[in-house]
Amino acid sequence: METYVQAGLEALGDPTRFAIFQRLVRQPLPVSRLAAGLPVSRPAVSQHLKILKNAKLVTGRKAGTKRIYEVNAEGISMLRDHFDRLWEHTLAAFKIAVEQEQKIHEEKVHARGNGRKRKRGKKNHKG
């Protein structure tokens, strides 16, 4: 797994960071507003934001005396690309499994059908 994907998934694996990320998905916010809605201190929120920034999931920009944090579209795109590839691989594997199962089923049906024809053929020769 690519490093950025692993970092992103690990960052979102923490419930507090996930909650911060979810709030930032709705709208950009400063640390003070993020901390107000969470059961952790402002310094703790800042530490969580640092991890989210390192994972490229959020960015911060200066706005006067505050720093506003928002979701990083580039980082989200990298995670989405990973899950798209994973989903495509999974669907392709599922398709192959279904086709193999269908082939086995058809072979069994065909074998049963051939067995019945031979039995009927033998009866017709006696009659």
Concise synopsis of the structure shown:
The protein has helices at 3-12, 15-26, 31-36, 42-54, 73-126, and strands at residues 29-30, 58-63, 66-71.
Provide keyphrases for this structure.
Arc Repressor Mutant, subunit A; 3-stranded antiparallel β-sheet; mainly alpha; 127 residues; 5 helices
Describe the overall structure:
The protein is mainly α and 127 residues long. The chain has a domain at 3-75: Arc Repressor Mutant, subunit A, CATH 1.10.10. It has helices spanning 3-12, 15-26, 31-36, 42-54, 73-126; strands spanning 29-30, 58-63, 66-71. Strands 1-3-2 form a three-stranded antiparallel sheet. Strand 2 and strand 3 form a beta hairpin. It is rod-shaped. The protein starts with a helix and ends with a helix. 13% of the residues are buried.
